[in-house]
Design brief:
This protein has helices at 8-26, 89-97, 205-214, 220-231, 273-282, 304-311, 338-355, 365-370, and strands spanning 46-47, 58-69, 78-85, 99-100, 108-109, 111-119, 135-138, 141-142, 165-166, 179-186, 193-202, 217-218, 242-246, 259-262, 271-272, 300-303, 321-325, 330-332. The protein is α+β, with helices and mostly antiparallel strands. The protein starts with 7 loop residues before the first helix and ends in a 17-residue tail after the last helix. Helices cover 24% and strands 22% of the residues.
């Protein structure tokens, strides 16, 4: 309890120190069961210049713990570090007042305290990755982590799926109470690790689609010029006068509503933005379904040319394929008599198959064809008596 008139910052510092000492004295965890005590707890965070990759489904609202290195003390295999953060009044209110508390679902926080780990590498953006034998406690309670993925490789520890961790249910949503995060891991020679804690807002695929549409569409003239370039490329040995493409999404095989593609891809084929975002909401891969290249959210753009094609009256509702011309124009695939020709061929095959029905009665088709219409009477033999 804070004494009236006392310095709030001094109180928070004393509370944080007390939490660190209590956790250090406890020293209990899965590593102590093996008879090997973790090394001394690190009381201060060492900030590092590491940039983590942005997560499209989480909007960043601030850093509660800037990217800090997990410092290994001594030569022991199992290490331990401790970090403390305090929420502001606004942050605590944002988390507490934005909850989904419907009876049909568990309590879901739209504003979350997010924990992330990544390798210590300052040369490029880092994706999420867990240190080996990781164990996390928040305010003395065990934090659930993704289950490791089994592996058949010998002497290789299974890795956990790379994803951020929601610490919100374990946090103290108060501006006067510090939150303590205790991390235990197995030291990996030659490889360092980074921890970071952020305040984020969880977004849905519908929200990302709305933001993508609001960003605007790529001008149809850009795609038209791209069509001209591809169909008039003098470097190609085989001249191409037109190109057939589809307005059906390669993911759902249905006509697209919001045709899009990354600005980093040079192909004409688009995919449906809504379906693509829904799939990445369930399992984020951010991979182009057309060419398998990276398709990051910030690089997606709705294509104005194909959006006009989909809305055009010239395109029948049952037709999803179009022909692109050298001048950048398009037209539906022309209907031909291929179906009638196909039906005639099927009838011809049925007539030829009727001859083979005689085989079941022990008469070959060749014998039937060679048999005369009227059978001739057998010739009588005259016998002469010789005396």
């Amino acid at each position: 309890m804070m004494v009236p008139g006392a310095n709030p910052m001094q109180y928070l510092q004393q509370a944080a120190a007390y939490q660190q000492q209590a956790a250090a004295l406890a020293g209990r965890g899965p590593y102590g069961q093996h008879g090997q005590q973790p090394q001394q707890v690190a009381n201060q965070a060492r900030l590092v210049n590491v940039t983590l990759k942005s997560l499209p489904f989480y909007e960043h609202h601030g850093a509660l713990l800037q990217p800090s290195s997990l410092l290994a003390k001594g030569t022991g295999r199992f290490q331990e570090a401790q970090f403390t953060f305090v929420l502001t009044v606004q942050q605590a209110n944002d988390i507490a007042s934005n909850r989904d508390i419907r009876a049909t679902t568990k309590v879901n926080y739209l504003h979350q305290v997010q924990l992330r780990f990544c390798p210590l590498d300052t040369t490029k953006e880092q994706g999420d990755e867990f240190p080996p034998s990781i164990c996390v406690q928040v305010n003395g309670k065990m934090c659930p982590l993704p289950n490791p993925i089994p592996t058949n490789k010998p002497n290789v520890e299974p890795k956990r799926p790379p994803k951020p961790i929601d610490l919100t249910p374990l946090c103290k949503l108060s501006p006067t109470l510090p939150n303590t995060v205790n991390v235990k891991w197995a030291a990996d020679q030659g490889k360092g690790w980074v921890i970071a804690i952020y305040l984020v807002e969880k977004l849905t695929s519908e929200q990302l689609l709305e933001r993508l549409v609001q960003k605007g569409t790529r001008q149809s003239e850009f795609t038209r010029e791209l069509i001209k370039k591809k169909l008039n490329d003098e470097g190609d040995e085989i001249a191409t006068t037109n190109l057939k493409v589809t307005v059906a999404c390669p993911l759902g095989k249905m006509r697209m509503s919001n045709p899009c593609r990354p600005t980093t891809c040079d192909h004409l084929q688009c995919f449906d933005a809504s379906l693509f975002l829904q799939m990445n909401e369930r399992k984020p891969t951010w991979q182009c379904p057309v060419c398998d290249s990276p398709a990051l959210y910030q690089n997606l753009m709705v294509d104005g040319y194909f959006q006009e094609v989909i809305k055009a009256k010239e395109l029948p509702e049952e037709e999803n394929e179009i022909i692109l011309n050298q001048d950048g124009s398009w037209h539906p695939v022309p209907k031909d008599n291929s179906e009638e020709v196909k039906k005639k061929e099927e009838k011809k095959d049925e007539n030829s198959a009727m001859v083979d029905l005689y085989d079941d009665e022990g008469v070959s088709s060749g014998a039937v064809a060679a048999a005369p219409a009227v059978a001739s009477a057998p010739t009588e033999i005259e016998c002469i008596d010789i005396e």
